[in-house]
Design goal:
Order of helices and strands: HEEEHHHHHHHHH
Structural class: mainly alpha
Helix content: 40-55%
Largest sheet: 3 strands, antiparallel
Strand order of the largest sheet: 1-2-3
Low-confidence stretches: 173-183
Number of strands: 3
Number of helices: 10
Length: about 180
């Protein structure tokens, strides 16, 4: 992780306690795991309401390549077979062409988000940067509503982030009886 991102514990505190919109505080959690022998690779995870929402790692991207039939893998494969052609496919399928992303792409998007205005982050071609911007406290209801026309063009996972955020800012509708009691 670059020095611009500081320590993970500090970054996590920022992402979970300082950055999110008030209705999202305590509902969004981030995790970063590094395993021995992974040569510095990490698995970043995002949780909504205690449920795993999305992972960012080499593994999730390679599994995506296999699941989508992009990588041809034998039914019985060893570790070499599993990772064969990974870097070539990663170069051939940039972020715009896939819906799973690496840990480095997550970290790069987080750094880009931290160094841009919220308006630039909401308009970013990088969907991970947009994810951070959608969850940001500086993104209000009107800004979210202005994005409604473009949401259909986004990957499904990012549309889910948008719906999650919109649900958090939409006031709970009250029954007529409750409204009359308030008056």
């Amino acid at each position: 992780m670059s020095k611009a991102l500081s320590s993970w514990s500090g970054m996590r505190r920022y992402l979970e306690k300082e950055m999110p919109a008030d209705p999202l505080k305590g509902r969004v959690r981030y995790n970063c795991t590094s395993y021995v022998g992974m040569d510095g690779c990490r698995i970043f995870e995002v949780f909504f309401d205690g449920n795993l929402f999305k992972q960012f790692s080499w593994e999730t991207v390679n599994s995506y390549f296999i699941r989508e039939g992009i990588a041809e893998k034998p039914p019985r494969m060893d570790i070499h077979d599993y990772w064969a052609d990974y870097r070539t496919l990663l170069a051939e399928y940039p972020m715009e062409k896939r819906t799973e992303y690496t840990d480095d792409e997550f970290a790069g998007a987080l750094e880009a988000y931290r160094n841009r205005s919220i308006i630039d982050s909401l308009a970013s071609p990088d969907p991970i940067v947009r994810m951070f911007a959608l969850l940001d406290r500086r993104t209000g209801r009107r800004a979210l509503e202005k994005l409604a026309d473009r949401v259909a063009e986004w990957p499904e996972w990012l549309r889910q982030v948008y719906r999650f955020r919109m649900d958090a800012v939409t006031p709970v509708s009250r029954s007529m009886e409750e409204c009359q009691k308030i008056e």
